[in-house]
Amino acid sequence: MEQHLFILLFFTVPPILSVLRQYYLIQQGKTWSDAQAYCRATYTDLAIIDSNDNMVRLQNGAQRQQFSSSAWIGLYNPINSWHRNYERVGTMRWKLGAPDNSGGHQECGAIKPVGWVDVVCTRSNPSVCFDDSYTGNQRYIYISTTMTWLEAQAYCRQHHTDLASSRDATEYSVIKGLTSGSTWFGLFRDSWKWTDQTNISTISWMTGKADNALGNENCGYINNGQAADALCSDIMPFFCYSDITGKQQTLRVKVRSKEDVNDPAVMMAILDGHLGRSNPPHFPAFIKL
Hints:
The protein is α+β, with helices and mostly antiparallel strands. 20% of the residues lie in helices and 36% in strands. It has five helices and 19 strands. It has helices spanning 32-42, 52-64, 149-159, 169-178, 264-275, and strands spanning 3-13, 20-30, 45-46, 71-76, 83-84, 87-88, 108-112, 115-119, 125-130, 140-147, 162-163, 183-188, 193-194, 204-205, 219-223, 226-230, 236-244, 247-257, 285-287. A five-stranded mixed beta sheet has the order 13-4-15-16-14, covered by helices on one side. The longest helix has 13 residues, at 52-64.
């Protein structure tokens, strides 16, 4: 007698290329910090837009609500993340008024007779290298050739040990004594980041941004698909997000057989024929008669 077996297959399809995110436009004005607190309490966080697909998803959501104004996203400038050769800075010896991030892109440190200053990393300066194969003050080598900060770092690492640090009063005094003007040493900070600490990549800036025009413009917003910097105390709507980790799908299969479909061996044979020799980890199978 022919019997029928109904199989329900439940499986989760994981994201393949990037994490898909669901975006939520909150048309209530808040500061950046208050917006982040709201998003973290209600969803996951302020919007992270780390792929073109996610940008399209956010823009489509805004268009459905006929929204075309500026809104906060989870973009910020970590202006206090200064490091010396990847060590967090302790004692600070800044020139009066520095760091000020003038122009919005001063992410490398230089030393002057009056103290440290923050400078655009692409500027050409002499540098001071450190070489741990020497002892005493001979470990500090002044390089008069002007280079960008990254070029100076590469040069010091190739020919010596690294760019010199200024970890205490003694090192500061020795390095300052070798210089007469703005000179690179091993001080830098992180640039713009998403709230999950990843670097920005796919999103583009409005022309001329980020410029820190008003000083302390350390929070990012989006308008018409492009980012810009603003004072974190400004009031504007905002986008939250939550991750889409996968979708569960159900497949109903009807199998005809003259065998006893209640026999466990028959059930396994049918499943092996449908799914392959074994069930993949993300495709657990459940049988309903």
